[in-house]
Amino acid sequence: MAEKNRAVVRVHGLEYTILGAETPEYMQRVAQYVSRRMEEIEYLGRMGEQRLATLTAINIADELFKAKDDMAALRREMLELQRALRALEKEKKQSGRETKA
Fold it and tell me: What is this structure's pTM?
């Protein structure tokens, strides 16, 4: 089992102790990101903590889904480019054989 690291983080003014496989520095970065997003959303209007946490989670999930969609599109594009490159290499190889014959 992977070793668990512990980090004390602050999210939206509240302190949490979290455990994870990542480094404490990474967990701090994640917590700071969540806290910053909460502040951005709260800026739009005062609301209760539960509503703020829910809207923040929805916004971060939206970012995640968009990033995954972008990554999938880039993978598809990369595969298409690899296929095109292989086809060009094959064509070049065949062209070289015809020239020698």
Answer: 0.77
